[in-house]
Structure formats: C-alpha cells, structure tokens
Amino acid sequence: MSNEHLLEFAWGLANSGYTFLWNVRPDLVKGHDNAVHLPEFSAATKGRSMLSPWCPQEKVLEHEAVGVFLTHSGWNSSLEGICGGVPMVCWPFFTEQQTNCRYKCTEWGIWMEIGEEVTRTEVKAILREAMEGEKGQEMRRRALKLQESAVASARHDGRSMRNVDRLIHEVLLA
C-alpha cells in the first residue's frame, strides 16, 4: 500500500476509539523498508493499541475478544476468519482478493468492503458499523453459522476429511 493509505488506515483505527492489534509488516508500504508511524498516532492510541510485525493470526482470530478482522481478503486469511467465527472488513488489492471479498460480501454476508481509495472517515464508519451496527450484528450471526459448518467439515468424519480420504484413495492409492 502507499504511505497515504497507511496513514488513512492508521487514523481510521485511531478515530474509531476501539482497542486493536495491527500487524504492520516492514514491507507493507511500497518503496519503504519500514512502515513509518507518527508519534501523534502512537499518542492517540496509547493503552488501546498493539502494533506488531507478525502474530499467530489463526490463534488471535479464535480469541473471544476479537470483534472484527480487517484483512486484505486473501484466501488463507478468509478461512482463518471463518474458522474463528469473526466478521470481516476487507480491503482487497490484488490476485484473488477482490473475488474472495466480493463473494463473501454478497453471498455469505460476513464482510464489509472498504473502497479502493480508503479514507480515515470510511475506516472509522465501517469499523463502527461492523462492531455495533445492525449489519455488524447480522455479519456476526452469519460468521458464527459458517464457523459451525467449517468446524463440522474438518472433523474426522466431516465432509472435508471424507473428501481428502477419497482423494488419497482415488488418486494416490489407485
């Protein structure tokens, strides 16, 4: 993302008033080895934010304290969010991310999308709606329903495991 996008996300998060964990990889900003954070941002979010270059995302998303997952909408992140039963806000920017986001917004109703030219006002408004609004409550209900299905599918006798077993027997052991 551009430095301008980073600043819009940062101030949108800060202005939302919520506590947050934000993974900011060193290569996040185009043309920079390190994403730059303003002292004003750190001061505005002191005591309610944690910035990190990495975290065990799957474990974090399974925690009951997580209210919403702001993601680029890659497939692995999508699955981890679904398995965690977490509603998502997405900002897709390349490869399959747009397709994943569009499908989960329109078909499954567990996502809200931030526009391509992100603004701090939009980030704040979408986070508030996802956390407290009617649409956010419906997203949470749907996300929990999808989580139940994903967990059931991954059980020893679940759909996914039966399909893996069938693949092994029909392709690898045939």
Task: Give a verbal description of the structure.
This protein starts with a helix and ends with a helix. It has a single domain, classed as Rossmann fold, CATH 3.40.50. It has helices at residues 3-16, 39-44, 57-61, 75-84, 97-108, 120-132, 134-154, 159-172, and strands at residues 20-23, 49-52, 69-71, 88-90, 111-113. A three-stranded parallel beta sheet has the order 3-4-5, with helices on both faces. The chain has a two-stranded parallel sheet with strand order 1-2. It has 174 residues and is mainly alpha-helical. The model has no long low-confidence stretch (mean pLDDT 92). α4 crosses α7 and α6 crosses α7. It contains eight helices and five strands.
Q: Would you list the SSEs in sequence order as H and E?
A: HEHEHEHEHEHHH
Helix count equals 8
CATH top level? Answer: Alpha Beta
Structural class, judged by helices and strands? mainly alpha
Assign the CATH topology.
Rossmann fold
Number of strands: 5
Mean pLDDT: 92
Biggest sheet, in brief?
3 strands, parallel
Our estimate of the beta-strand percent is 5-15%
C-alpha end-to-end distance? 47 Å
What is the helix fraction of residues, given as a range? 40-55%
Radius of gyration: 18 Å
- Please give the domain count: 1
Give the CATH architecture.
3-Layer(aba) Sandwich
Contiguous uncertain segments of 5+ residues? none
Shape: globular
Strand order of the largest sheet: 3-4-5
CATH superfamily: Glycogen Phosphorylase B
